[in-house]
Design goal:
The structure is a single chain. The protein is mainly alpha-helical. Helices cover 87% and strands 0% of the residues. The radius of gyration is 25 Å and the shape is elongated.
Length: 60
């Protein structure tokens, strides 16, 4: 009985620690991350367009 109680308490303790240690971001950090993602998407799109233009001009 003692081992079961210790196991349950340990499980609750570990679950509490894992859920309470999440990183909380401020609004400014969230905005900064979103701006970076948009910038990366634009760069990728521009590279894809450049590649398509290069492919089209190579064929002629």
């Amino acid at each position: 009985m003692k081992k079961i109680l210790i196991s349950i308490c340990s499980l609750v303790f570990v679950a509490t620690i894992l859920t309470s240690c999440r990183e909380k971001k401020s609004t400014g950090e969230k905005v900064e991350d979103a701006v970076e993602e948009v910038g990366e998407s634009v760069e990728e799109g521009a590279e894809e367009i450049k590649d398509e233009i290069d492919d089209a001009t190579d064929e002629n």
